[in-house]
Amino acid sequence: MIDHIGFAVSDISTARDFYAAALAPLGIEVMMEVTEEMTGGHGAHVGFGGADKPYFWIGSGRTAVTGVHVAFAAQTRELVDAFYAAAMAAGGTDNGAPGLRPEYHPNYYGAFVLDPDGNNIEAVCHAPVD
Fold first, then answer.
1. What distance, in Å, lies between the first and last C-alpha atoms of the chain?
2. In this predicted model, what pLDDT tens digit does every residue of 10-60 receive, in sequence order?
3. Distance CA 83, CA 88 (A)
4. Would you give the distance in Å from CA 81 to the centre of its chain?
5. Angstrom distance (rounded) from CA 76 to CA 93
6. Three-state helix/strand/coil letters over the chain
7. What global pTM score does this model have?
8. What share of the chain is helix, strand, coil (3-state, %, to 5)?
């Protein structure tokens, strides 16, 4: 089981604002901010999460990465839709509108958005429709 994940971004402020908006519908929020001074010159970091623990981190101080794919769990299909709308409004680029992806499994409902650095960020719900 993965405890947390993180990667470098090109502009910490832009990325913070994007992720704060995009992840809010999923109940994921900024939980911790670490300044470059606090890390001894190893970049600033922002930790997002829930339940009193950050588990998704972005940071400066290194070359930004691209090509990362991170999928966030959504409890409902409506939350996937809300993630997509929020991410697009926050400056994301469409990489797959909300919908079923039966090639993965019959109930796979996901949406894909590229973040400001071109990383593929997804929200996915695996629950069947009631």
1. 29
2. 999 999 999 999 999 999 999 999 998 998 888 999 999 998 999 999 999
3. 8
4. 14
5. 22
6. CCCCEEEECCCHHHHHHHHHHHHHHHCCEEEEEECCCCCCCCCCEEEEEECCEEEEEEECCCCCCCCCEEEEECCCHHHHHHHHHHHHHCCCEECCCCEECCCCCCCCEEEEEECCCCCEEEEEECCCCC
7. 0.93
8. 20, 35, 45
Which pair of structure tokens corresponds to residue 9? 């971004």
Total residue length of the chain: 130
What are the backbone angles phi and psi of residue 86, rounded to the nearest 5°?
A: -65, -40
Domains (range + CATH), the chain: 5-125 (3.10.180.10)
